[in-house]
Recover the amino acids of this structure.
């Protein structure tokens, strides 16, 4: 199999692409290749970049196979052709670490970039004549090429950013991670933001406390505005702009809690594997369940989220109906939600269940129902959340069945998992204990 020479376009409208750039190529081979050699699966890609500034630029390659890069026909970076490769966690653990080469570029000059690739590591051997199974690099062929100006010193770049911030009308600092720091098939090794990101944010907040950002860690108390945008895809920029400019009123809620320290997580002592075994020692006490049980405050709590408007919750009520079986149990929580602000927006009503009389150790509360309601300014809506037997039961290993215990429960109506956000505790009394198997 041979892939002939071809040209790649880093941007569809203009092949003269400005730095920095990233090119990712990955292909999966669907069947073993008999008798393949390192010369039978390769390609050569050619493209062009235009440097935006004078100075050294770093070219990086991580690869499954072998690759090298030429800039204006000069070899700048070799990963596997004439150099020994170092295994890494790229491409689901099949690839190498990122090797880096440096090349001096001049502003506004056009440079020819040639990427040569082979799918086979230098030392890969075919196991036998009938199958390529077990040979690293045969079933996945992948290469990642990137380029960016080299920072002489992080402190210099931070100082430059601070000077820009001082002169700006508004400052938005976008931070976060990329596939270099987190990806499928591998766990992040650090809880903090990458590199000198926290130093950058702290420096910006010292001169502009109104700086906005998409993450929050050690400097959270210094920031007046924080936007968590996750990985929104191609339209992330447009979506963030709509929120910041008030075209859209944000209504999202956090699907997890943000601890202050990684050590605060209830799974911290069990994290990772030892001798190929993973122990989930925290049991039910993951996320907000664990933080409440261990009385650890979190930076941001499960279920939290702000809005450009305000809401009032009133007329809380619970209706309980039950019969001779667990299937007959029906609990309905209702309330009135009113938009008391000046703009339209969405509110999320959350119902947590507490079982203080359980014979087994259970979390102090667990989310069992929620409803999202969109309201125009000044409007109200009657919100109803229905719960069934599973909202109050658990699986009993000893009885090898589901169990709904007789006794007192509480339906907690809240804006988040934080205790301070609980607006009502409604009592639910189950008359009889029930067991059942299956659904």
């Amino acid at each position: 199999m041979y892939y002939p020479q071809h040209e790649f376009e880093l941007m569809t409208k203009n092949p003269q692409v400005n730095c920095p750039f990233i090119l990712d190529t990955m292909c999966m081979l669907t069947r073993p290749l008999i008798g393949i050699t390192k010369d039978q699966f390769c390609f050569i890609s050619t493209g062009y970049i235009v440097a935006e500034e004078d100075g050294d630029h770093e070219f990086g390659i991580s690869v499954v196979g072998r690759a090298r890069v030429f800039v204006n026909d000069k070899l700048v970076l070799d990963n596997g052709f004439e150099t020994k490769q170092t295994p890494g966690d790229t491409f689901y653990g099949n690839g190498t670490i990122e090797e880096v080469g440096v090349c001096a570029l001049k502003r506004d000059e056009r440079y020819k970039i040639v990427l040569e690739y082979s799918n086979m590591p230098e030392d890969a051997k075919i196991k036998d004549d009938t199958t390529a199974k077990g040979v690293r690099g045969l079933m996945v062929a992948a290469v990642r090429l990137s380029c960016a100006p080299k920072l002489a010193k992080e402190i210099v770049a931070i100082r430059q950013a601070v000077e820009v911030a001082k002169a700006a009308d508004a400052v938005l600092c976008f931070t976060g991670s990329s596939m270099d720091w987190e990806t499928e098939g591998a766990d992040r090794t650090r809880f903090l933001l990458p590199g000198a990101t926290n130093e950058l944010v702290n420096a910006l907040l010292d001169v502009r406390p109104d700086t906005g950002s998409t993450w929050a860690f050690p400097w959270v108390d210094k920031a007046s505005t924080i936007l968590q945008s996750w990985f929104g895809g191609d339209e992330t920029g447009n979506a963030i702009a709509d929120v910041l400019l008030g075209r859209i009123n944000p209504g999202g809620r956090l699907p997890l809690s943000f601890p202050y320290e990684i050590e605060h997580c209830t799974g911290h002592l069990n994290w990772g594997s030892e001798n190929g075994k993973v122990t989930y020692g925290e049991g039910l006490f993951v996320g907000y369940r664990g933080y409440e049980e261990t009385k650890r405050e979190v930076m941001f709590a499960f279920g939290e989220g702000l809005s450009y408007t305000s809401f009032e919750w009133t007329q809380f009520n619970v209706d309980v109906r039950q019969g001779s079986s667990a299937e007959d149990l029906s609990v309905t929580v209702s309330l009135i939600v009113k938009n008391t602000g000046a703009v339209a927006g969405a509110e999320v009503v959350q119902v947590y269940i507490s079982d203080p009389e359980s014979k087994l150790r259970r979390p102090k509360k667990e989310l069992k129902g929620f409803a999202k309601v969109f309201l125009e300014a000044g409007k109200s809506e009657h919100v109803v959340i229905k719960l069934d037997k599973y909202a109050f039961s658990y699986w009993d290993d000893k009885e090898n069945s589901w169990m709904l215990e007789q006794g007192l429960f509480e339906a907690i109506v809240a804006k988040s998992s934080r205790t301070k956000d609980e607006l009502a505790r409604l009592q639910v009394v189950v008359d009889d204990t029930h067991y059942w198997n299956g659904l």
Remarks:
- The domain at 311-436 is CATH 2.60.40.10 (Immunoglobulin-like).
- The longest helix spans residues 154-167.
